[in-house]
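Title: Comparing notes on inverse folding

I've been comparing how different people in this forum approach sequence design from structure. To keep things fair, I'm posting one structure and asking everyone to reply with a full sequence. Here's the target:
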């Protein structure tokens, strides 16, 4: 851009110089004409075409031709300035177009960020409502006046049943699938006549897990999954973990994958045996 402006400045200087020269030759063209006019009109000399005409034609014609050439060159230089100015205008338009595109891109990115922020806010509204619903369901399930036997007592019973199973003579001879089935049998026995409460809490958990999975692209999934997990107390930990192995709980393929992913982050200290986490993957769609 600066180079083009420098060229224009140089051309304008040349135009000024050659214009002055052109007008200078125009003036020189008039001098012979004036001299002959003075001789003929003032001094009353006779018009001699061979002398006066040749003099005017030879001198004035030469100066006029030079002036014409200079004015043509000045016009050419003016066209060059016009072309350069058009090039500058085109570059300015290109730059303005780029700036406009950049501005539109920035506005688009801003709108996308606002849209993502809106989606996150919508997600969190539903997430905390589901989390609150889980807490309500848990409080009801563990209520002393709900069911024929307190759910905490059933979980204590489950703990004792599992310890008995671990110490049985045939436990070490069982493969992983058989051990998983054994955990399910222990869960069914210890939580009998109260399993509807277990199933309700697992279903409430699945609602949260599915909501997290549906928004996986816009959120930090691990963060919110951990937030859900750390909200659980040790009794909820054990109930959700061992209730998973029961045949009374049916999962479809998506639910099974999400629930296994959830159980995988459970702290081994909150379940009866750390080896039980190795059995998670052996459950199949029921």
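Reply #1:
Here's my take.
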């Amino acid at each position: 851009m600066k180079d083009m402006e420098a060229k224009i400045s140089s051309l304008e200087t040349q135009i000024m110089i050659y214009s002055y020269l052109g007008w200078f030759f125009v003036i020189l063209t008039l001098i012979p004409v004036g001299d002959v006019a003075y001789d003929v009109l003032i001094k009353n000399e006779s018009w001699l075409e061979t002398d006066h005409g040749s003099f005017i034609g030879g001198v004035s014609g030469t100066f006029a031709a030079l002036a014409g050439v200079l004015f043509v060159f000045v016009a050419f230089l003016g066209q060059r300035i016009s072309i350069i100015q058009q090039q500058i205008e085109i570059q300015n338009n290109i730059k303005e177009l780029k700036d406009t595109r950049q501005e539109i891109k920035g506005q688009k990115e801003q709108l996308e960020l606002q849209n993502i922020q809106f989606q996150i806010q919508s997600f969190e509204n539903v997430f905390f409502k589901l989390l609150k619903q889980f807490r309500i369901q848990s409080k009801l399930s563990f209520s002393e006046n709900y069911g024929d036997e307190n759910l905490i007592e059933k979980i204590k019973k489950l703990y004792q049943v599992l310890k008995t199973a671990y110490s049985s003579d045939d436990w070490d001879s069982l493969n992983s699938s058989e051990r998983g089935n054994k955990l399910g049998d222990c869960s069914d026995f210890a939580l009998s006549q109260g399993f509807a409460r277990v199933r309700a809490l697992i279903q409430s958990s699945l609602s949260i897990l599915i909501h997290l999975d549906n928004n996986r692209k816009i959120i930090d999934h691990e963060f919110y999954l951990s937030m859900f997990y750390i909200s659980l107390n040790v009794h909820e930990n054990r109930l959700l973990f061992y209730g998973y192995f029961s045949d009374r709980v049916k999962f479809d393929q998506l639910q099974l994958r999400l629930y296994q992913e959830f159980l995988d982050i459970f702290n081994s200290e909150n379940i009866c045996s750390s080896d039980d986490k190795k059995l998670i993957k052996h459950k199949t769609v029921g």
